[in-house]
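Incident log, support desk, overnight shift.

02:14 A customer reports that sequence design results differ from what the structure should imply. Their input is reproduced verbatim below. On-call engineer (initials T.W.) acknowledged and began investigating.
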C-alpha cells in the first residue's frame, strides 16, 4: 500500500473524521508520557515533604526554632536574594566556577590519556584511586596549610574534589571509542592533540558530562568546607557557620535551599546537554 492510499484510508476512517489533522498525526509517545509522569511524581514528592515538614512544626513534633518550617524559610528568602548573601555569594560562586571548569578540562584530557595509553594508565591509576576514594574533608586542611586563607585555597580544594570523578568517567569512555573512527582519523593524518580534540573528546562527551555531574557536587563540598574551617573571610560556608552559631534556623535553611537550587539548576543544564549529545554521538 502506498503512502497516498494509506492517507486516503485514514481520511475515510470514522474515528479520524472530524478531528484536526494535528491531533491525528501527533500523539504522545511512551517517552513523553514517562517524562511527564516523572515530573509529576517528583513534584508530588516535594509537596508531600514540605507539607509534612510544616505540619510537624505546627503540631509540635519538632522544635521550629531549631528545624524551622517551610513558611518561615519562605519569609527569609527575599532577605537572601536582595542582599543577604552579598559578597559571600560572589566569592563562593567564583571559586566554584573556576574549580569546576578547571577540573572538567584537566580531568577530560587526563582521562583520555589514561584510557588510550596503557603506560599512562599504569602510572596514574594509584594516584587516581587514592584521590577518588580518600574523603574530601581530609584534603581540605592540607590545602589550607599549604596555601593559607583566601580564594586560591578554596579553588584548589574544589579542584581536587572534582577532577578525580571526571578522570575516572572519561577514562572509561575513552576505552569505548570506535576503532573505525580512530583508523579513519589516522588515514587522514589526524594525530596527537588534534585527534584528541576532534575524535576522542567528542566520542567521550557523554562520559565527560556524567563526570561533570558528579564533580559539581564534590566541588561545592570542597569549596564550602574550606570556607567553614576558615579558608576565607567571605563565602557561603562562612555565612552558614555564622547563621548556625546565631541560632538563625530560618535563614540557615533558606541559604541551604538556595545552594541546593543552584546546584540542581546546573545539573539540569548538564542533563539537557547530555541528552542532546547522545543524539549524534558516533
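02:41 Re-run completed on a clean worker. Output:
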Amino acid at each position: 500500500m502506498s503512502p497516498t492510499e494509506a492517507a486516503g484510508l485514514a481520511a475515510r476512517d470514522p474515528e479520524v473524521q472530524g478531528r484536526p489533522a494535528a491531533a491525528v498525526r501527533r500523539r504522545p509517545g511512551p517517552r513523553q508520557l514517562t517524562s511527564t509522569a516523572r515530573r509529576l511524581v517528583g513534584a508530588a514528592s516535594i509537596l508531600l515533604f514540605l507539607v509534612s515538614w510544616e505540619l510537624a512544626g505546627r503540631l509540635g513534633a519538632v522544635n521550629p526554632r531549631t528545624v524551622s518550617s517551610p513558611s518561615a524559610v519562605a519569609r527569609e528568602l527575599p532577605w537572601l536574594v536582595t542582599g543577604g548573601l552579598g559578597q559571600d555569594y560572589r566569592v563562593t560562586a567564583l571559586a566554584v566556577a573556576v574549580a569546576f571548569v578547571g577540573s572538567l578540562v584537566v580531568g577530560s584530557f587526563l582521562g583520555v590519556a589514561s584510557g588510550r595509553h596503557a603506560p599512562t594508565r599504569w602510572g596514574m591509576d594509584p594516584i587516581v584511586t587514592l584521590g577518588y576514594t580518600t574523603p574530601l574533608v581530609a584534603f581540605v586542611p592540607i590545602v589550607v596549610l599549604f596555601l593559607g586563607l583566601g580564594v586560591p585555597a578554596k579553588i584548589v580544594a574544589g579542584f581536587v574534589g572534582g577532577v578525580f570523578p571526571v578522570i575516572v568517567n572519561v577514562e572509561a569512555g575513552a576505552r569505548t571509542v570506535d576503532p573505525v573512527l580512530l583508523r579513519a582519523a589516522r588515514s587522514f593524518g589526524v594525530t596527537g592533540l588534534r585527534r584528541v580534540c576532534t575524535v576522542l573528546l567528542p566520542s567521550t562527551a557523554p562520559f565527560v558530562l556524567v563526570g561533570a555531574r558528579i564533580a559539581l557536587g564534590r566541588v561545592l563540598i570542597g569549596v564550602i568546607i574550606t570556607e567553614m574551617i576558615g579558608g576565607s573571610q567571605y563565602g557561603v560556608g562562612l555565612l552558614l557557620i555564622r547563621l548556625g552559631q546565631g541560632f538563625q534556623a530560618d535563614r540557615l535553611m533558606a541559604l541551604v535551599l538556595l545552594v541546593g537550587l543552584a546546584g540542581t539548576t546546573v545539573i539540569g543544564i548538564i542533563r539537557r546537554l547530555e541528552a542532546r549529545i547522545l543524539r549524534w554521538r558516533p
